[in-house]
Probable beta-glucosidase E (Glarea lozoyensis), 965 residues
Amino acid sequence: MSHKKEASQSREGLLRSYDQGENIPLRKSLEEAYASDSGSDIDATEFLDRDPLAEQSQPAVVAYGPAARLRNLRTAFNRRSKCAIIIITVLVVIWSILAGGGFFLYKKKPVDGQSPPWYPTPPGGTVMQWSDSYKKAAELVRKMNLLEKVNITTGTGWQMGLAVGNTAPATNVGFPGLALQDGPLGLRFADNATAFPAGITVGATWNKELMYLRGKAHGKEARLKGVNVLLGPCVGPLGRMPAGGRNWEGFGTDPVLQGIAAAQTIKGIQEEGVIATIKHFVGNEQEHFRQSWEWGLPNAMSSNIDDRTLHEMYGWPFADSVKAGVASVMCSYQMTNNSYSCGNSKLLNGYLKDELGFQGFVQSDWLAQRSGVGSALAGLDMSMPGDGLIWANGKSLWGPELTKSVLNGSLPIDRLNDMVTRVVASWYQLGQDDTSRFDGKGPNFSSWTNDKLGRINHGSPDDKDEKVVNQFINVQGDGEDSHRIIAREVATEGTVLVKNDDNVLPLLRDGWLSEDKHEIKMRIGIFGEDSGAGDGPNACADRGCNQGTLGSGWGSGAVEFPWLITPVEALKEAFNKDRVYVTDFPTNAPPLKKAPAILKDQDFCIVFVNADAGEGFISSGGIKGDRNDLNIQKGGDELIKKVSEGCGEGNGKTIVVVHSVGPVVVEKWVNLPGVKAVIMANLPGQESGYAIADILIGNVNPSGKLPYTIGKSLDDYGEGAKILYYANGVIPQQTFSEGLYIDYRHFDKFGVDPTYEFGFGLSYTTFEYSNLVVNKLREKTPLPSPRPTGVQAPKFDTNIPSPTEALFPEGFKKLKKFIYPYIEKVSDIKPGKYPYPEGYNTIQLPSEAGGDEGGNPDLWNVYAEVSVDIQNTGTRAGKEVAQLYVSYSDVTGEAKKVDFPIKVLRGFEKVFLKVGEKQSVKFNLTRRDLSYWDVVRQNWVMPSEGQITVRVGASSRDLKLTGWY
Ligand code: BGC
């Protein structure tokens, strides 16, 4: 019952605060860029709590019999012009298509009541590590007037300011407007900045140090460009669906891998004083239906996630991020359990702010806020980019509406004070009051023009004032500090060698080694569009097309490449020209018939192929964000077949390099006799060519491991792995009924053999594992210690100011579409009895799993330490990633009845070993690592009877040593 109310409240909130009934346009990023693909705008005068589909279907199915219906139709035909009927038919057809089948499928009522209410929002300032910042923040906030407070919570509107998100300053107290910029693989829309490898490549390195260094370089670039808040890293999507359009922005399909990579990235970014944003909280696993209207439906889909799965899978990396001190969380577009994520009190108030003890501020994804007061009560702190339900129209659900809601008493002023204090405390926590690091002048680049001069409020037709907006400051670092060094290292270590028959790799820089051939030049042919420059890396806005070599996916997570080193150019440079003859055919249709010699004369053929995807607001090559399948794209499979069959007249050796946003099915060619080596090079960023050349000629010994499973078909990943491409209701439902069983956990449970398993990757050397020791540091007990009380949150005056203070100053010159905090007239304030969500007054007990940043501190205590010895037994120096997995097959007692995956990753360490060298590698296992989420006890429970099994090895299916705790 109560759940129901909350879900409908969010829609109700929307109805109350926004009833103008305007056209709702599709989501657009840069208006000029994507018009071509996304279809027409939809005329939507309906509100979200109505059912427009049902309403539109009325005329054809009124309750008359078939004969009467025919008669009616005939009369109608006579009455109306043919033309009108055609228009109606066309509209209905367009609507049905846009609704992705929803029109015909509509039978079910929207589901309500899956997300319990959790009110009020726990205030920030309750943990020691933030208490100084909260003290300073509270002092400042106490001096602010209402308008200043509202300014801090609400963006100024799309393209109102130089960054993708901007807040206005609290001028009287000297608090600056903040600039928020994407993230997560570099600075979006910026010049002279680095295009780092994408998250998926970072995950494939399994190198904690590189994760941190990339974050730090990214943070430094953001700071030097005047950005306060970086919109990354990304851990949602987690990768439930391997074809998910944005999986590549995150670090791989496992919560522990994602969590560690995110925490390291956050540490790096925030050490530079820039606020990191962990996104998208939570369940944003697919692009189709992720937000209202983008897919023709009035509502976004719902990701339905059960409590245990939330804790052990999708929420886990967010918990790691909070533990790492992340200062901002971005709530996602879609609904979670049928309540919009940015208005879901259970998620934001209960899970994030109470249980995980999050001290920073929650910002909405761009237009993910769907209600006014409702979302503030549910725990949202900042509305981005400020515009409310409609893109770029300047009408906010907050801004002046928030001012009104405080003045009319519908939003408790305490909540507003907490919202503001959370933002200001984050600013202090990151040291942004230090003027030597942050001059408070805002970004020195513009997201909206490449010219030196431009308008700051580009989105307002009233802003005619041209200023210097691009100072073209190079932030890429010089010499030893050049960020391209890190970018290249990540790209190289994030390259995964999965097949190397007869040790065909590495190739030698000087060609042949053996005596008999040593006078002959080696001949290498490079094939595939993915090896070359194409039309240049920045040919399409937000990298929204697949052409040339693939360095990143598309969408808000992509950046302008300052350059992109192509495989062809790097490989030509890498080989000794006197001894190796390299020819290149950077096309997927080389002239094999006309010029067969280009294949038959080669000793080695290197084929580059790819698979691309991205954010749902762009569609390209028939891909609307999410991939349509797991195949190699643009005819790459065929190219590999042809090349491997013809290379050296069947005696040549073919090496396949795949640049891809995620797993691809390789069955069509991986076992062909000519295909000797296969490399998964992920998305390498600007240094692409150098990275692959280093691996191919052995300058660097490959050490990447797969951050996902490569299955033989999409079906092998299970039903839950399939994108919902067609609406299955007015609010499309994706129920995560597979629970914990995604990726390798699914393959294990159902005994499916992957082509290449999660965590797999080859090296040019060999490693031996020995001597696993489990050192018990603490005794097993089922429950963590009681929740600590924490510190007192700051208190504020709760008097409601006079509405006259909030009026537009006389003679104020407004810019059209800019979001101001002011109200027009005092009579707009109508104090009254406002409805609150059901459950609002129910007292919530603080979670026993909470008590500090990241949850109960005992969850982070180390209970067991595991060590293993690893020795390099081959002929080259190299790095190995040792992975630790935990299993519960030997537990007894109560936990015996609990369903556990066969194994779960709980740690990894990368170690460099010279030839013959042996090192001991250590893993720490925390209480959380050894526990499961008990939905009845609402706490983490450690199976304490019997033994917990610990296995360490080189991949999820190559576990060499076993021990017990
Ligand atoms: C994306 C976010 C991004 C925001 C701002 C949204 O479309 O989902 O990840 O940070 O735009 O560009």
Summary: Residues 164, 182, 231, 279, 365-366, 556 surround beta-D-glucopyranose (CB under 6 Å).
